[in-house]
DNA sequence: TCTGGGGTCCTAGGACCC
DNA sequence: TCTGGGGTCCTAGGACCC
């Protein structure tokens, strides 16, 4: 904690939804929900008009639709969000060289590194208001909420107090007066699980947390979190604003509208994800040694497996080969809703092939199931079961006849299914790159 | 058909080394 | 041949954040 209110936290209000309303005037003043469009999607951002109906982040699309059926549901234009975010971050860097982005819509700014006459409350208040006006200008009308205080913790807490389009400055010396009546859930890092543990120990507010000894908190929550919360309950936070932080992992994952049971299909999807991870690594000039997969089963149980290579790689083919081998250890008979591939243990150098050709080795390729050849029913003509992918040969009287073949393996066997047979799954094409 | 995607950090146990 | 301890790496899982 500093003696001056020199840490600024800026939060763009309902960011994704606000960009959509900016770019499409017909959406202004109306409920807009970004995310939650797919069969298993969740809400990423709801505009304030939609929040009135109880729609919020991380809510399932199904529930959001039930609460606010007349909202505009959008899948998101991340390029536009990234571009707008860049403009905002540049405004912050014009104010101070020490800017720490937390996400596309949030950042800390160290005002002690800015060129200001002093750090009095009146001065930083004016700086904050100017900053909010400037953000409004460069974004074409987006609003931001700002918190300014003597530490990251307090600045972030402060920026939550006057949303949207507001600002809160916490004068040095008043931090504990502000914190003590608040619930422990305002502390970043206290989520549902930690809150429940604290609640069982009779701790609801920060004032109550402050009464608990450090030993007791460590016993309750473990060394790192116990010690951390003991400090935050006293407004003790000396974490610096750090401008550049290097990525520690890169991953790609996907949730599928219906559960996967076909191992060949899973291997094909992992292969595709591995290629995407490799491409992103090369683009960023990094490589890594530990390849991980993530598998979420039908019942939401989440498994992970990883393998550490003797030397770093950025090669999608290698990553894919390891990923498929890791999948081989897992029992996926109940069905899989999510698959993911990641690489960690990153180094900012590349071991080999720095300028070499990047053609992939053909013998490592896994053949993806064939694309649709006929249409029945609309959008669902290519299907698969545990035998692999197939396509609909004919249908009638509630029965579907499927040929299990691909261009590589004709002619395949023909089987008939009832239309509602749970063994028959719609083939979900992998997302576009 | 409750429960996204891309991350970070922490814990805990076992291997292995000194 | 009584049991030792620390440090690092690896793996799996969990909590949390936006």
Automatic annotation (TrEMBL):
One of its GO terms (molecular function) is DNA-directed DNA polymerase activity. The active site is at residue 106. Gene3D superfamilies: 3.30.70.270, 3.40.1170.60, 5' to 3' exonuclease, C-terminal subdomain, DNA polymerase, Y-family, little finger domain. It catalyses: DNA(n) + a 2'-deoxyribonucleoside 5'-triphosphate = DNA(n+1) + diphosphate. Binds 2 magnesium ions per subunit. InterPro entries: DNA/RNA_pol_sf, DNA_pol_Y-fam_lit_finger_sf, DNA_pol_Y-fam_little_finger, DNA_polymerase-Y, DNApol_IV, IMS_HHH_1, PLipase_C_Pinositol-sp_Y, Rev_trsase/Diguanyl_cyclase. Residues 7-191 form the UmuC domain. It is found in: Cytoplasm. Its cofactor is Mg(2+). It holds the Pfam family IMS_C. It is an enzyme of class 2 (transferase). Residues 374-410 form the PI-PLC Y-box domain. Residues 407-433 are annotated as: Disordered. Residues 417-433 have a biased composition (Basic and acidic residues). Mg(2+) binds at residues 11, 105. The record marks 16 as: Substrate discrimination. Its EC number is 2.7.7.7. SUPFAM superfamilies: DNA/RNA polymerases (SSF56672), Lesion bypass DNA polymerase (Y-family), little finger domain (SSF100879). Keywords: Cytoplasm, DNA damage, DNA repair, DNA replication, DNA-binding, DNA-directed DNA polymerase, Magnesium, Metal-binding, Mutator protein, Nucleotidyltransferase, Transferase. Monomer. Poorly processive, error-prone DNA polymerase involved in untargeted mutagenesis. Copies undamaged DNA at stalled replication forks, which arise in vivo from mismatched or misaligned primer ends. These misaligned primers can be extended by PolIV. Exhibits no 3'-5' exonuclease (proofreading) activity. May be involved in translesional synthesis, in conjunction with the beta clamp from PolIII. Belongs to the DNA polymerase type-Y family. This is DNA polymerase IV. It comes from Nocardioides potassii.
């Amino acid at each position: 904690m500093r003696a001056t209110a020199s840490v600024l936290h800026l939060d763009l209000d309902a960011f994704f939804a606000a960009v959509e309303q900016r770019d499409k005037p017909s959406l202004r003043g109306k409920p807009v929900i970004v995310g939650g469009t797919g069969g298993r999607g969740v809400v990423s951002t709801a505009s304030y008009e939609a929040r009135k109906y109880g729609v919020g982040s991380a809510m399932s699309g199904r529930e959001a639709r039930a609460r606010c059926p007349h909202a505009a549901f959008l899948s998101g234009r991340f390029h536009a969000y990234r571009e707008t975010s860049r403009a905002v971050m540049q405004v912050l860097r014009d104010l101070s060289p020490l800017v720490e982005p937390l996400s596309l819509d949030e950042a800390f700014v160290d005002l002690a590194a800015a060129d200001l006459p002093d750090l009095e409350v009146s001065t930083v208040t004016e700086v904050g208001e100017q900053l909010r006006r400037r953000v409004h200008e460069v974004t074409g009308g987006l609003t931001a909420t700002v918190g300014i205080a003597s530490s990251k913790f307090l600045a972030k807490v402060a920026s939550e107090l006057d949303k949207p389009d507001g600002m809160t400055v916490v004068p040095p010396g008043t931090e504990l007066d502000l914190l003590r009546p608040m619930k422990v859930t305002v502390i970043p890092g206290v989520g549902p699980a930690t809150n429940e543990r604290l609640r069982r120990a009779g701790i609801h507010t920060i004032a109550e947390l402050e009464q608990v000894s450090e030993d007791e908190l460590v016993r309750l929550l473990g060394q790192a979190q116990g010690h951390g919360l003991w400090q935050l309950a006293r407004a003790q936070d000396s974490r610096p604003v750090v401008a550049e932080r290097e990525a520690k992992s890169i991953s790609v994952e996907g949730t599928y509208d219906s559960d996967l049971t076909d191992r060949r299909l899973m291997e094909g999807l992992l292969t595709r994800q591995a290629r995407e991870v490799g491409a992103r690594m090369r683009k960023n000039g990094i490589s890594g040694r530990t390849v991980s997969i993530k598998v979420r089963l039908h019942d939401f149980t989440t498994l992970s497996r990883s393998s550490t290579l003797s030397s770093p790689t950025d090669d999608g083919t290698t990553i894919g080969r390891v990923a498929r081998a890791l999948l081989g250890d897992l029992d996926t008979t109940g069905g899989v809703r999510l698959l993911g591939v990641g690489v960690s243990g990153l180094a900012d150098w590349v071991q080999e092939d720095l300028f070499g050709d990047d053609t992939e080795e053909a013998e490592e390729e896994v053949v993806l199931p064939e694309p649709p050849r006929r249409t029945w029913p609309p959008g669902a003509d290519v299907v698969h079961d545990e035998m692999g992918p197939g396509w609909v040969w004919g249908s009638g009287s509630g029965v579907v006849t499927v040929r299990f073949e691909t261009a590589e393996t004709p002619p395949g066997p023909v089987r008939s299914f009832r239309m509602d047979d749970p063994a028959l799954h719609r083939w979900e094409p992998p997302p576009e790159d």
